[in-house]
């Protein structure tokens, strides 16, 4: 809808929630709308007006707008209730954020990063050693998602016992594998669950899987775990202070497992796949890694941490990660309009938003896939975010003007991802360990990069339509 025009009525599509407003293939629907109507338009979906803004020069006026006008939390509440069956009495998102934010930053971030390195080694090297010295075949998504989620779970939710023994580590591997496989069954059904389109059989299955996850993550079970993160301790205390029952706490912990672990594994999958399909990129990352190893005090087999200073100084890997996320991170950035307001566009126009309507940014279309900003936007170029002198490239332009928000996998503004420091370190550590310890190759070197599972637009990282078989073996 342009100002003065009648609204577009998309018919009787039922209201299904933020992530799902635009049917199965949201990206192509929004692309068509952008071609017809430009960078801002409003659609009527199931009786609600949703204003879609696709001009990255104007995103800042939304993401830095006060909470009293544009509210972020309605989406979180939707996810909580509709997908994860969580209802929290006296839920105050700002209070929760104030309590949780410090647990993901500074000293606590360092503790998380160190624990993640240890846990990644436990699951990656332990599983590979157990399997023996030959080649193992598995799907690359399965490998990336399972190792990252298992290590992430052990890092946030705690390990079996201290001091770590071979036996306790074997238990950590078995238990975290159980958590991953159970979680993954729910994750696979998530788009359908959120859309309310589960078959009767699926519904039964989801019920059983959720029940099992609630048991695995029950506060009573977690009470026995060692080295729990400050993040978990603070979250549990916060739930207890709100008077949340143990049963509801377990549900909230399953929601948090998804919120904290649902994106890193798929991101690492795409990253490794792009490297395997681009030998020049893989060689550049390997060269950087060799450099890190040549300056380390110990051989990689004895390294118990990867210092933050080293992690922060891997520009090639950083560029590869940014390029991967540019191509595969497709969250909807949604805000509920809670008071009549006007958004100023960068070109001087101003659009009125009515209380009760919704606002949606989709940075995946622009800036991330915008041909004006990125030449050949569909193509993976490992050095796209590198300057000739090896420093990070930060200057990208649209309409002749330099862009502030040129890649937005983490969102931006007040609600930018709080876990990004931890997520970036974790993914770098994972790639580092895989490349340092494993030989890894595609089973079929001519394997094409799979299409996206289109039903996942809006949820965060895209997942492939099917997995890609790889083989790996531990280096002697
Ligand atoms: C590749 C991994 C990840 C990606 C791509 C990602 C992306 C995002 C995005 C797009 C948002 C919403 C921004 C908005 O709507 O404005 C967000 C919010 C958030 N993320 Fe992440 N995230 C990742 C990993 C994590 C991890 C590992 C944690 C915690 C351990 C985390 C914690 C959070 C929190 C707490 C928020 C809400 C911030 C708020 O309330 O203002 N994320 N993330």
From TrEMBL:
Keyword annotations of the record: Endoplasmic reticulum, Fatty acid biosynthesis, Fatty acid metabolism, Heme, Iron, Isomerase, Lipid biosynthesis, Lipid metabolism, Lyase, Membrane, Metal-binding, Prostaglandin biosynthesis, Prostaglandin metabolism, Transmembrane, Transmembrane helix
A GO term, aspect molecular function: monooxygenase activity
Predominant location: endoplasmic reticulum
Cofactor: heme
GO cellular component: caveola; endoplasmic reticulum; endoplasmic reticulum lumen; endoplasmic reticulum membrane; nucleus
Residues given in the record as heme binding sites: 417
Places the protein is found: Endoplasmic reticulum membrane
UniProt keyword Transmembrane present: yes
GO biological process: apoptotic signaling pathway; cellular response to hypoxia; cellular response to interleukin-1; cellular response to interleukin-6; cyclooxygenase pathway; decidualization; embryo implantation; negative regulation of inflammatory response
Organism domain of life: Eukaryota
InterPro entries: Cyt_P450, Cyt_P450_CYP7A1-type, Cyt_P450_E_grp-IV, Cyt_P450_sf, PTGIS
Membrane topology: Single-pass membrane protein
Reaction catalysed by this enzyme: prostaglandin H2 = prostaglandin I2; a hydroperoxyeicosatetraenoate = an oxoeicosatetraenoate + H2O
CDD domains, sorted: PGIS_CYP8A1
Function statement: Catalyzes the biosynthesis and metabolism of eicosanoids. Catalyzes the isomerization of prostaglandin H2 to prostacyclin (= prostaglandin I2), a potent mediator of vasodilation and inhibitor of platelet aggregation. Additionally, displays dehydratase activity, toward hydroperoxyeicosatetraenoates (HPETEs), especially toward (15S)-hydroperoxy-(5Z,8Z,11Z,13E)-eicosatetraenoate (15(S)-HPETE).
PANTHER family named in the record: PROSTACYCLIN SYNTHASE, PTHR24306
Family from the record: Belongs to the cytochrome P450 family.
Protein name per UniProt: Prostacyclin synthase
Organism name: Myotis lucifugus
Species lineage: Eukaryota, Metazoa, Chordata, Craniata, Vertebrata
């Amino acid at each position: 809808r342009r100002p003065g025009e009648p609204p577009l009525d998309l018919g009787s599509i039922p209201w299904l929630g933020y992530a799902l407003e635009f049917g199965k293939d949201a990206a192509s629907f929004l692309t068509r709308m952008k071609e017809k109507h430009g960078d801002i338009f409003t659609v009527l979906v199931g009786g609600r007006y949703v204003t879609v803004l696709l001009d990255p020069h104007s995103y800042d006026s939304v993401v830095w707008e006060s909470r009293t006008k544009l509210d972020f939390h309605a989406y979180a509440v939707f996810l909580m209730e509709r997908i994860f069956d969580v209802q929290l009495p006296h839920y105050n998102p700002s209070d929760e954020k104030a309590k949780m934010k410090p647990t993901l930053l500074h000293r606590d971030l360092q503790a998380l990063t160190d624990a993640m390195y240890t846990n990644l080694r436990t699951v990656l090297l332990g599983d590979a050693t157990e399997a023996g010295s030959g080649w193992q075949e598995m799907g690359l998504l399965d490998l990336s998602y399972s190792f990252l989620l298992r290590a992430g779970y052990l890092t946030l939710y705690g390990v079996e016992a201290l001091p770590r023994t071979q036996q306790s580590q074997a238990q950590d591997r078995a238990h975290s594998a159980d958590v991953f496989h159970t979680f993954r069954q729910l994750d696979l059904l998530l788009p359908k669950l959120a859309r309310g389109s589960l078959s009767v059989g699926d519904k039964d299955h989801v019920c059983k899987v959720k029940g099992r996850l609630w048991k695995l993550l029950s506060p009573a079970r977690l009470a026995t775990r060692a080295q729990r993160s400050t993040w978990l301790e603070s979250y549990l205390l916060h739930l207890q202070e709100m008077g949340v029952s143990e049963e509801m706490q377990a549900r909230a912990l399953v929601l948090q497992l998804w919120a904290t672990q649902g994106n890193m594994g798929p991101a690492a999958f795409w990253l490794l796949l792009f490297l395997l399909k681009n030998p020049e990129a893989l060689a550049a990352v390997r060269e950087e890694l060799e450099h890190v190893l040549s300056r380390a005090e110990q051989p990689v087999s004895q390294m118990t941490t990867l210092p933050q200073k080293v992690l922060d100084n891997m520009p090639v890997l950083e560029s590869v990660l940014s390029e991967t996320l540019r191509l595969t991170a497709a969250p909807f950035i949604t805000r509920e309009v809670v008071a009549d307001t006007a958004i100023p566009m960068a070109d001087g126009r101003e659009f009125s938003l009515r209380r009760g309507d919704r606002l949606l940014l989709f940075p995946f279309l622009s800036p991330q896939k915008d041909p004006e900003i990125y030449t050949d936007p569909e193509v993976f170029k490992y050095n796209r975010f590198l300057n000739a002198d090896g420093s990070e490239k930060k200057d990208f332009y649209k309409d002749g003007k330099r862009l502030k928000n040129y890649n937005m996998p983490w969102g931006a503004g007040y609600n930018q991802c709080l876990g990004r420091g931890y997520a970036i370190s974790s993914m770098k550590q994972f790639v580092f360990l895989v490349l340092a310890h494993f030989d890894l190759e595609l089973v079929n070197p001519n394997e094409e990069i799979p299409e996206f599972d289109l039903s996942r637009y809006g949820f965060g990282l895209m997942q492939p339509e099917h997995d890609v078989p790889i083989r790996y073996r531990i280096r002697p």
